[in-house]
From TrEMBL:
<feature type="transmembrane region" description="Helical">
    <location>
        <begin position="109"/>
        <end position="128"/>
    </location>
</feature>
<feature type="transmembrane region" description="Helical">
    <location>
        <begin position="76"/>
        <end position="97"/>
    </location>
</feature>
<keyword id="KW-1133">Transmembrane helix</keyword>
<keyword id="KW-0812">Transmembrane</keyword>
<dbReference type="Pfam" id="PF08044">
    <property type="entry name" value="DUF1707"/>
</dbReference>
<keyword id="KW-0472">Membrane</keyword>
<protein>
    <recommendedName>
        <fullName>DUF1707 domain-containing protein</fullName>
    </recommendedName>
</protein>
<dbReference type="InterPro" id="IPR012551">
    <property type="entry name" value="DUF1707_SHOCT-like"/>
</dbReference>
<feature type="domain" description="DUF1707">
    <location>
        <begin position="8"/>
        <end position="60"/>
    </location>
</feature>
Amino acid sequence: MAQQQRNMRISDEDRRGAAEELRAAHAQGRLSLTEYDTRLDGVNRATTYGDLAKIFTDLPAVSHARTERRSSAPKWVRIVWLWWTVTLVINLAVWALVRFQLSDDVHFWPVWLLIPTIAIAAVTYRATTAHAAKQARRTPAWRG
């Protein structure tokens, strides 16, 4: 970690993240309750990234993907799929009503909805993999 960054002041969010990382280390059995309590006090007293780095020198980095309960897909992807599913269900219901009201064979026109569905699936795949990679790269500043 660069000397300049070690001297930068930490935020309350950094303290919460450090406390969560200590909690995870304690849950894994890497810290006794006494060590956990002592280090947690150190996190609360820390003012710079260098102070936090000293607390974590003998602990391996904890993957934030495991400690934070986040979805693998961004929120906007879930919203798009929700609305698209509603659209598909409505279209299928309208086709079914028309099909059973008429005695003629009615072309299955909802098949044309497969094209935008494939496009949405491709965009979802790209967004989800980019989001997962971003989550995996996230490391706390005190880890350097």
